[in-house]
Amino acid sequence: MNDELDKIVLEKLKKIEEGLITTKPFLNIEEVSTFTEISKSTIYKLTSTRQIPYYKKAKNLVFDRIEIEKWLKLDKIVSIEEIDKESDNFFF
């Protein structure tokens, strides 16, 4: 029973941590990983190929949360409904 309670507490703490991350203006690599649900190793690869916006202060990588949110919205897959609306606007 103790393990079950520990699991519940850890899940709640994780949700609180995620909520705090969404209010911070700048994030470190671990916070970006949590925020985006992308592994730290993938984040490092994305920075090395300059595919994700970041800043480097000394040896630390720093990410602007708003820029990361915008980056996540890039390459949107357009829905059928959006295509239909756009085609209606085009022809009428």
How would you characterize the overall build of this protein?
By secondary structure, this protein is mainly alpha-helical. The protein has one domain (2-91). The chain is built from five helices and three strands, in the order H-E-H-H-E-E-H-H. A three-stranded antiparallel β-sheet has the order 1-3-2. The chain is flat, with a radius of gyration of 19 Å.
Brief write-up:
The chain is mainly alpha-helical and 92 residues long. 62% of the residues lie in helices and 11% in strands. Strand 2 (55-57) and strand 3 form a beta hairpin.
Count of domains: 1
Order of helices and strands: HEHHEEHH
**What's the number of helices?**
5
Q: How much of the residues is beta strand, in percent?
A: 5-15%
- Radius of gyration from the alpha-carbon trace, in angstroms: 19 Å
Helix content: 55-70%
* N-end to C-end Cα span: 64 Å
Number of strands: 3
Structural class: mainly alpha
- Spatial strand sequence of the major β-sheet: 1-3-2
What's the rounded overall pLDDT mean? 87
Q: What form results from the Cα inertia axes?
A: flat
Low-confidence runs = none
Largest sheet: 3 strands, antiparallel
Topology:
Elements: H1 2-21, E1 26-27, H2 29-36, H3 40-48, E2 55-57, E3 60-64, H4 65-72, H5 80-91
Antiparallel strand pairs: 1-3, 2-3
Key features?
92 residues, mainly alpha, 3-stranded antiparallel β-sheet, 5 helices
